[in-house]
Specification:
Helix content: over 70%
Radius of gyration: 22 Å
Distance between the termini: 60 Å
Number of domains: 2
Number of strands: 0
Largest sheet: none
Shape: globular
Length: 248
């Protein structure tokens, strides 16, 4: 009996390690993909030609339109596409139109999904494929910044995906949502495509492209980190106030 139990435990542990290994492998491949997105994008252009615009549209639409896919590399991909447009591999005007439409339509789809099923998801304790913690953070961010969240969130990974969903939950009128959606989408696409187009082929940037992409990601995450730290300090301050009152 002891031998059978030991064998079963061994199999469970082996399966766990294998599962962790698979997750680590996916994570490493994902990070590698972001760091070398310029090379992958160049290969996609070589293989698929004009269909590359369709692929970029789908990626941007999914990142902005589906709350189950908040980790796609929108910022770095736009920057890399802009850099490739500067050397003639892609057309900048076409890129602007495709990326802008994808960003607007993605947020619009996300808004209506939130309006339709958002409250049901919030009511559940656990939701498969959706990180409820991210959803709650986005909701707090929306409560603090109001309608401008739709514009600001464009520049904050993860929050970018959840903001329109939360706007739909909050029953923000669509006629009010769409102008912020258009402004935010236009600024986001123009800034990163333009940044890649004008700076992506400078010798320093080309020689350190992976590091530049990492810097873009870190800078994009900074606002979210600052908000998180402020919230932690506020909670800690409130806890200390409660303790001081109880000790009196």
């Amino acid at each position: 009996m002891l031998q059978i139990y030991t064998m079963k435990c061994g199999r469970v542990m082996e399966a766990t390690y294998n599962e962790r290994g698979k997750i680590m492998g996916i994570l490493i491949n994902f990070i590698s993909g972001i760091m070398h997105i310029d090379k992958y994008l160049a290969l996609i252009i070589q293989q698929y030609g004009i269909l590359t615009y369709v692929i970029l549209f789908i990626i941007i639409f999914i990142e902005t339109g589906l709350v189950v896919m908040p980790l796609l590399p929108g910022d770095s991909m736009l920057f890399a596409a802009g850099a490739l447009a500067a050397i003639g591999s892609m057309n900048l005007f076409t890129l602007l139109i495709v990326a802008y439409l994808a960003a607007i339509l993605g947020d619009t789809a996300n808004y209506f999904i939130g309006k339709k099923i958002g409250k049901k998801i919030l009511a559940k304790e656990e939701v498969r494929f959706i990180n409820k913690e991210y959803l709650i953070k986005a909701q707090k961010f929306y409560e603090k910044h109001g309608s401008m969240t739709i514009v600001i969130a464009r520049f904050i990974p993860i929050i970018r995906t959840f903001a329109p969903f939360v706007a739909g939950i909050g029953e923000m009128n669509y006629s009010k949502f769409i102008p912020y959606n258009m402004i935010g989408g236009g600024l986001w696409v123009s800034l990163f495509l333009g940044g890649g187009y004008f700076f992506g082929n400078l010798s320093f940037v080309k020689n350190h492209f992976s590091y530049v992409l990492i810097a873009i990601i870190i800078i994009s995450l900074l606002p979210g980190v600052i908000v998180f730290i402020k919230e932690k300090r506020k909670i800690r301050g409130n806890d200390e106030d409660i303790l001081s009152i109880e000790n009196r």
